[in-house]
Specification:
The protein is 33% helix and 27% strand. The longest helix has 20 residues.
């Protein structure tokens, strides 16, 4: 059974922020609702107010072009995954999003919701980190833009203030990036990640970015690595050494720290092979 709460379908972002401010921390934003409603039903959250922003035209819009992309907070995942322009420019991000839940759930779930839920295992988060995405936020104090790398603060916690709403996610121009995503889960089909890894490689600038999820309280973005492809074996070992020093896998209900430590280098090596091979990732 869902608890009692007030429901407000807003007509503007300003109205939503005002209502959240008046709720004084007991309000919640409803966009896709695929995580929020489950948490309310399970007693993990008990908001007194739900602010429904799904009907706002500005949040239902997205655009994808050579100058970069913006994705409204109410855009369902399947709209992006099945959009040819998005699939062409961000294939690894589309792959990561396609691993979230079931097809039916992705008809409602949103990219903004996936990161606002702030699960360490969020499949979109590592890809957004290596793509250097930005989160657009609106609150009583006005709009602000927060890099995804600064958005997560702990398990299920973000930098969002009680009166703030995520308006959308922006992706910069992709230029020559090769990208890749890998995920290890317990069962086939839809399941949360035991470990997920995203990578982005610039062949022209010779740098590599890696981000790792489900191994720490928040997704981890490693420092940018200068690529030396003359000896790929030595370079792979160099990268694995950086990974081991940057990430200390945790134990939880899905897997032990020991299992994650065993899986992580395998996924990283596969990412490296995919990105640095002559064929060159996606």
């Amino acid at each position: 059974m869902l608890a009692n709460f007030e429901y407000q379908r807003i007509r503007s972002m300003e109205e939503g922020c005002r209502l959240l401010a008046e709720a004084k921390g007991s309000g919640a934003v409803l966009a896709g609702g695929t995580d929020l409603l489950v948490e309310i039903r399970n007693g993990l959250k008990s908001p007194t107010l739900l602010v429904d922003c799904k009907s706002l035209d500005s949040l239902k819009a997205f655009h994808v072009d050579d100058s970069g992309s913006s994705i409204g907070a109410a855009v369902a995942l399947n709209r992006l995954i099945e959009n040819r322009s998005f699939q062409t420019r961000y294939p690894a991000l589309a792959k990561a999003m396609a691993s979230i839940g079931t097809y039916q759930l992705r008809n409602r779930a949103t990219l903004a919701g996936n990161i606002c839920n702030a699960s360490p295992a969020a499949d979109s988060a590592p890809m957004l980190l290596v793509l250097d995405a930005t989160v657009d936020i609106v609150g009583i104090g006005g709009p602000r833009a927060v890099p995804v790398r600064d958005f997560f603060t702990s398990v299920k916690k973000t930098v969002l203030k009680p009166d703030e709403i995520v308006a959308g996610v922006r992706l910069p121009e992709r230029t020559d990036l090769r990208t890749a995503f890998r995920k290890q889960q317990r069962i086939r089909g839809h399941d949360l990640a035991v470990v997920n890894v995203a990578g982005a490689y610039s062949p022209s600038a010779k740098w590599l970015r890696l981000a790792i999820g489900s191994c720490a309280p928040t997704p981890v973005l490693l420092d940018t690595i200068e690529v030396d492809s003359k000896d790929t074996g030595a370079f792979s070992q160099h990268v694995l050494k950086i990974v081991r020093s940057s990430v200390s896998p945790i134990s939880d209900v899905r897997a032990s720290a020991e299992y994650r430590r065993a899986v992580l280098p395998v996924l990283v090596e596969r990412i490296l092979h995919e990105l640095l091979s002559a064929e060159g990732g996606v």
